[in-house]
Amino acid sequence: MKLNYNKAEYVASYGKFSQIPPCDRIEIAFAGHSNVGKSTLINKIFNRKNLARVSSVPGKTATINFYGLENIYFADLPGYGYAKVAKSEKERWAGLIEGYLSSDRDIRLVFMLVDMRHAPTKDDVQMINYLIDTEMPFVLVLTKADKLKKTERLKRMEAFKTEIPCFDEIHVIPFSSVTFEGVEELRGIVEDIADDNDVADE
Fold first, then answer.
1. Which domain holds residue 183?
2. What pLDDT, in 10s, does the model give residues 171-181?
3. What distance in Å separates the CA atoms of residue 167 and residue 42, rounded to the nearest whole number?
4. Residue 91, C-beta contacts closer than 8 angstroms, at least 6 positions apart
């Protein structure tokens, strides 16, 4: 099913899990460290400049932001791991992310973003382990792929095998907002999920 990405629209933002209305359609979530490029990725998938507001200030997304397209909601989770926010704020974010992921919402997939240039952070590994342990379907998106030369890239991919749990068994997509690498593959996954849902509804 070809989705008309230009029709994606911002729906709402919530600062507490208790504020989020009940789930009435399937959802795809985006998770990752502060400043890993979630908003940029969302804008590229939907072929829009400012659907998700991109900030140069890490830790700016302090809410779950929902976007809608046809029969799917896309949930942009707060970036975790930003050092310069108060402990209480970090705990609120953690509660928001965990509350969302452990709820009975119809979450079909999590796009888990990790910066390709660096080893994953402790929080990244914790999140990946959480997704594995809860058997939540996820795809690992390695962002900022264009910033690495070919040899550096090969080195990173090799290192990820020891840095990321079960790396060889995870569906991995290198992504670049500059070269558009990975965009079509990501859209293909979204469309497959939309198709599966249509079949289930019939």
1. 5-201
2. 999 999 999 99
3. 24
4. none
